[in-house]
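Limitations

Structures in this collection are predictions, not experimental determinations, and the ligand pose is part of the prediction. Treat each record accordingly. The example that follows, with adenosine monophosphate as the small molecule, is included so readers can see exactly what is and is not provided: the inputs are given verbatim, and the output is the predicted complex.
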Amino acid sequence: MANDQLLGAIRTVPDFPKPGIQFKDITPILKDVELLRQAVKSLAAPFEQANIDKVVGMESRGFILGAMLADHLGAGFVPVRKKGKLPYQTIAETYALEYGTDELEMHIDALTPGERVLIHDDVIATGGTAAATANLVKRSQGHILGYSFLIELAFLNGKAKLSETVHAVLTY
Ligand code: AMP
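Predicted complex:
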């Protein structure tokens, strides 16, 4: 099982959720146990020896592989969610979208100061979501070891917004 099989399984859906977006659909990977295991292995590879304490994953597709990645690395999992979804006290970060702004939240007690954090999402596009998540982690005094994405849309140069190591399993 190799990463080109992962690439072959990703379904690009044109004009979803709006005209002009080429949506990268990972559900064909999720439904195949061998592809799923390969995805987790490849996401984890550079961080196997990094002593990660927490994987922080972003709503909502970042929860799926993020929780599996956490298990694989022997780490806990922390969800970052859109405003108003988390039940307890939160810290929030506002970030720019193409039109307007959005807000992400994390529980105030999700991280213990000094914990070693890996940030995960399925796709990095403009990098705004990952950068806002990094700010939440830093405000909680988490130590970011890096980012692990399944897919990087390199032409959008989202990496430029992030200062730590960025690992992407697949690049478009
Ligand atoms: P970003 O522009 O990097 O902040 O991405 C915003 C969010 O939308 C992230 O959670 C990405 O996973 C998701 N996303 C952005 N572009 C795509 C795409 N072409 N296909 C699938 N998900 C996307």
